[in-house]
Amino acid sequence: MRISAGEWFRLSRPFTLTASAVPVLFGTSLAVADGVFYLGPFLAMLLASLLIQAATNMFNEFYDEKRGLDTESSVGIAGSIVGGRVRARDVLFGALSLYSVALLFGLYLIAAGGLPVLVLGLLSALAGYLYTGGPRPIAYTPASEATVFVFMGPLIVALTYAVQAGEFPPSVILAAAPIGFLVAGILLANNIRDLEADRRGGRRTLPIVLGRSGGVAVFRGLLLATYLSTTVLAATGAVPAGAFLAFLSLPLALRLWWGVAATTVPERLYPVVKGTAGLHAVFGLLYAAGVLLSLLL
User: Fold this and answer.
1) Is residue 44 within 8 Å of residue 28, measured between CB atoms?
2) 91: enclosing H helix or E strand
3) Long-range contacts, stretch 171-177, CB < 8 angstroms, 24+ apart
4) Which of 143, 162, 242, 287 is deepest in the core (most CB within 10 A)?
5) Fold classification of 7-293 (topology level)
6) Nearest CA to 209 among 114, 260, 143?
7) H-helix or E-strand spanning residue 269
8) What is the pLDDT of residues 12-70, one digit of tens each?
């Protein structure tokens, strides 16, 4: 079966890819602020992160269809397998191929950053697979948001900084917290939207365990934690004061604060999921720009 480029693009779930790009851009901004930047490691880290994210999305499509969780009426999926446009085995092959290419970039990054980069890079790739693969997928548990916070927040930012500067200072890990809160928020918004479908499929996501109102409360807590942690980090000098530039994204956050509780209809909550991804991108870019702005002040 011949698969079009557009179909592969849909399978990558492109609106989610900023969740991988933003931490790399922010980690690089911290390195530049500390006086180091190398184009090769930056591009390799960015491409490897995007490839792993796209592969993780494909694994998600493959395993959710295999377990009967995805149907043609499911919201927020590419629908390539259940719609009969792509064979499941081709999606699995595509995901493994992306991992293979990411590995090539990873070898280059190991040469730049040493053994810690190897260990953390392998952990990231393994987490991407185990998120929906394996006997006990992380995505089907209440731990999925915490896992995403760690791996797509502090870990990617710290790795990006390390391949530039050769070290993992604690301040970099702390500075990544707001990025991690928002990427966890993307997943939580998705799980709130899919609450009933996930319950029927036997999942035990955070909104199922806490109830819809509990999930909404945690989502709002993640939004609040994003801006509070940014304030504390900038006020204490852990990040430059220019980081306050990220507060320009606050109107988007307020819209999501009310929107997440406005309806229980999955289709109407889809804009909240995409909006949270958009907030993560806008906040992250402003946050990184604020760090770079400090060089001019």
Assistant:
1) no
2) helix 88-113
3) 171/238, 172/27, 172/30, 174/233, 174/238, 175/26, 175/30, 175/233, 175/238, 175/239, 176/23, 176/26, 176/27, 177/153, 177/225, 177/229, 177/233
4) 287
5) Farnesyl Diphosphate Synthase (1.10.600)
6) 143
7) helix 266-293
8) 888 889 999 999 999 999 999 999 999 999 999 999 999 988 988 888 888 877 776 66
